[in-house]
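Why does residue order matter? Because the sequence determines the fold. Keep that principle in mind as you read this record.
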Amino acid sequence: MTATSNDNALPTAAAATREAGSLDVQALYERYADTFATRDTKRIGALHAEDGTFWLHTDQGPIRGRSAIEEAFAQTFATWPNLRFEENRTLFGPDFWVLDWALFADFNEQTVTFQLTDTVTLDDEGLVVRKDTWVDSAQVTKALGSLTPDGDAT
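Structure:
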């Protein structure tokens, strides 16, 4: 399946990123990052396998299925409406990438930041079959705990 010239078409991970029978994981990562920046949960979901898993390693378990993953990202964008990220480094393997990144978001009129690490595994078609996101919970607690309800740092 390939993308059409329709600007509203959902992206496909597809054959254009395959070279000599292997995935172009860096190109797939770049597509994922670009799509994530749009905050379009349907387009993000289209990059995940129908039965894929997303696990934000906080106090919740894994989320399974494309529609549930789309909903999880919708909740993330609602919680962090100005979420942006800065890549620290990305490591690529034959069917995975590991992203070390910093999240920046506005919260109570303050900008908070903390570190995260994503491990993303791809299927043979280049779709995300599993995405694990680990959060530096000590940094989250410190960042959010230093704010008062009116947005002033304590």
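Confidence is low (pLDDT under 50) at residues 1-20.
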